[in-house]
Sequence to fold (465 residues):
Amino acid sequence: MLTKLGETFTDLFQKYMPSAFVFAILLTILAALGAYFFMAASPIEVISSWYNGFFDLLSFGMQIVLIIITGFSIALSPTINKGIDALAVYIKTPKQVYFFVILIGSLLSLVSFGWIVITCVLARELAMRVKGVNYPFLIACAYFSFGGWVSGLSSSIPLLLNTENNFLIETGVLSSKIPTSYTLGSTLNIAMIVLFIVIAPLLFLLFIPKHSNGKELKDLLKSNNQLKEGSIKDEAESFKLPIKAISDTLNNTFVLPLIITAMGFTYIIYHFIKNGFDLNFNIMIFIFLMVGLFLHKTPMRYSIAMKRASSNVSGILFQYPFYAGIMGIMLYTGIGEKLAEGLISVMTIDSYPFFAYLTGGLVNFAIPSAGGEFAVVGPSIIEAVKGIAVGLPPEQVTAMVSRASLSVAYGESLSNMLQPFFILLVLPVMGSGVKLQSRDIMGYLVVPFVIFFVLQTLMVLYIPL
Fold:
């Protein structure tokens, strides 16, 4: 029954869900109309807000591009391919592939959501090696696995709350930072981690499509006349001149990469000694760059690997500014804050976690960035919680603010399963060489979304910090 339901939703999404770009255009129009009618913003104010936000995600978008291509280039190295070959010996059935991808993906996402790239590479390679894997469903598995990032080390809202002199403190919304013992180390968050690494892999086994005919990766590649590329080493050799040349020696030397990677690894060690386990985007990109260069051994081979890894990132490059424009409308016209205020106006001391969770999920459709969204809705939610907590001990107020903030984070993360913004992280790797769009994937996520929505609602309401 659940399998049939999943396939029904997949058919509906294929018929009615547009591409991620069209989705962004429709959301832009909806946000603009909302700002015009509900905030009495003039057309030029709406358009100016859209333009002012248009480039707010350029830095983030470039970081995402570099995370994808540097992670993908590592996966193209002979060393990683041998490792995946060894792993594939023990994973022989489609069920094992689905289970393993969600489990490993959830664990990797606890380190950083950028590590979904590693999950995607592993999933794609397993799909090439194991017969009978429904590839669109496998992409859905990989995408769902990254939802656990919000409970992990790169969760932006708990990290923000624990940052000295963050914007909430500077504006007087909070009087001091909130330690991660109230958020990431809480019983609620640990339970949420268990939900992703234990329940999610088992849950998806109930939704496995009955048939994979025509939907295996090899079939999809074959139908698009995609020929397997030659090895990176062979391509590097093909660039050599027929005569001995210093340029070829420099292009194919092992020495220069060793010098650079020695410098790089030295800094990486220094960074973690100095800052602790500070795994931000920049240091992750730097690690991926150094590891990739080290594994490919020569400048020419690494350049070829990066070229191959960069072949499918156009979606991020031109779509992220449109999503940033939506965020600009929500931020600069005040409609995002207005929406949050409407949702939290009905909060009570018993129901505030649910409405914070719902706010996180709904606003995420227009502001698909946890940090950006919390900048809009966070102050209103925290003030509302403080209002209903008047007279309670400070420790209890802090706990309530922490629960509400976590609820926003969980709602924001789960609604990504219905919002195609972050699937743009997945498709450059798993969609390379195949004609698949978000509409082919996201129908498989509807039923898991509903189940997780119910489970997470009960958890934020009743599991203690």
About this structure: The chain has one domain: 2-218+246-462. The chain is about 70% helix and 0% strand. Residues 255-275 form the longest helix (21 residues).
